[in-house]
Structures are given as C-alpha cells and as structure tokens.
Inverse folding.
C-alpha cells in the first residue's frame, strides 16, 4: 500500500521529472477547459486532486478559473506556490498539503463546479480510499458539477513484468514493475545522472483500474458517468487498448 515516507524519500528526484514535463500541463489544461466548457463551465471553482507542482492548476487559473489544488507531498505544494507567484496567479489558485480523504475537513465551506484528477493521482491507497475521496469531492461539488478523471489503463500493464528507460535532460530513470493479481502495479523508479551516478530510488504500489472498474467506483461514490476517452490531449473515443482512461462524470 501507499507509504508517504517512502515516496518522500524520492520526491526531490520526482520533482525534477515534473519540472521537465511542465509544458504538458498547459496542453492538459486546454483540453480540460474545452471539456468543462462543453458542459457549461466556462468559469467557476475547480478542485485539482493530486495537483503536484501545479502544472495543470496554474494554466487553468490563467484561463480565469479559481482553483484549489491538493496533494499529499509537501515538497510539491511548496513548488506549486512558487510557480503560482512566478505566473502571477496567486489570487486565483491555492495549494493545500493534505490527504484526499481529508477533503471535507480541509476544504470545509468551499464548493466546486468541477473536479479534476489527472496523471493517475488516485489508487495509491485502497479502492475504498478512492471511493471515499471521490465521494468527499462530490459532497463539496455544486449540482451539475463535472468530474474529469485520468488514470493509466490497467490492461496496458497486464502480462509479464515491464522494464523501460526514460530520460529527462540530465536525469535518467530506469523503471520496472509488474501488475499483481490484486490489480496493483508494484514498480521501482531508479534515478541516475547522465554520467551514471546513482541518485536514489523509490517504489510505487498503485491500484490500477480497467474502464469498467473505474466507472464502477465513480458511480459508487455518487457521480454519474457520462463518457470515456482514450487520451486527455486528443480526446479520442475510448479504446480498450489505449494507454490511458479519461472518464467524465457529472453530479446530478
């Protein structure tokens, strides 16, 4: 299961990855804003679950939305606050370090027109934890609020253990993992400098979902699923062979 202390030990390295892919957040935000506008949410309050360093929340704030971003990792929240100042959106975005099962406690008195969670920000606890977090987000949402949820597609990881290498400027990441019979993806990230110096490692233990399972937990939390896409950037119709699942749901 998810262990925040283990993740924190490698968070400073993962921060370098997030900085490298910062510009992807602007592309994600454009697609998210387009989806929100299709459902009549052209402005208003948004909740970003698993906001990381604000790479999606800050572009949405620049578009005029008021955004609350929450993340379990304080280092990411500190970075997000720095980025908010850099992009001059401090009045439109606020970042909070908390667990997703503390939403009702930490966000008491707030209400949202949309909830977003991208880049597989759920699944780090149990399935019940995910349902509870989505239920709390629902309780904080206005009627007709929209949920946009993006996760890895479990079917992509089925079969033998996987290994691959990623490079982010002068940071090289060796990744390996396997999908257990319990649908949990157990993996290790090992970080090296471009010169080959070992920098550190950490492990993930994440509950991955199929499209059917994702719809089930979202509706168990009280949301009404509307549609599925294969990709947050292209918003192509969902294909079971796609790398990701993007689910759109509504509070009725």
């Amino acid at each position: 299961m998810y262990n925040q202390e283990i993740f924190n030990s490698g968070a400073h390295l993962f921060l370098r990855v997030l900085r490298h892919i910062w510009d992807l957040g602007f592309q994600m935000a454009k697609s998210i804003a387009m989806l929100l506008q299709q459902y009549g949410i052209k402005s208003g309050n948004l909740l970003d679950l698993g906001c990381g360093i604000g790479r999606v929340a800050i572009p949405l704030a620049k578009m005029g939305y008021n955004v609350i971003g929450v993340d379990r990792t304080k280092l990411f929240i500190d970075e997000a606050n720095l980025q908010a100042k850099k992009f001059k959106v401090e009045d439109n975005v606020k970042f909070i370090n908390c667990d997703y099962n503390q939403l009702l406690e930490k966000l008491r008195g707030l209400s949202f027109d949309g909830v977003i969670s991208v880049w597989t920000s759920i699944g780090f606890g149990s399935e019940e934890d995910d349902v509870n977090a989505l239920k709390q987000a629902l309780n904080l949402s206005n009627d007709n609020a929209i949920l946009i949820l993006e996760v890895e597609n479990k079917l992509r990881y089925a079969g033998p253990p996987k290994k691959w290498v990623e490079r982010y400027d002068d940071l090289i990441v060796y990744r390996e993992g396997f999908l257990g019979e319990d649908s949990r993806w157990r993996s290790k990230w090992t970080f090296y400098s471009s010169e080959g110096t070992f920098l550190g490692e950490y492990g993930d233990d994440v509950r991955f979902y199929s499209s059917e399972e994702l719809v089930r937990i979202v509706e168990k939390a009280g949301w009404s699923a509307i549609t599925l896409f294969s990709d947050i950037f292209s918003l192509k119709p969902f294909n079971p062979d796609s790398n990701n699942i993007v689910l759109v749901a509504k509070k009725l």
The CA atoms of residues 25 and 115 lie 16 Å apart. The chain has a mean pLDDT of 95. The helical segments are 4-20, 22-38, 57-62, 74-86, 103-106, 127-139, 211-220. The chain has two domains: 4-154+208-250, 156-205.
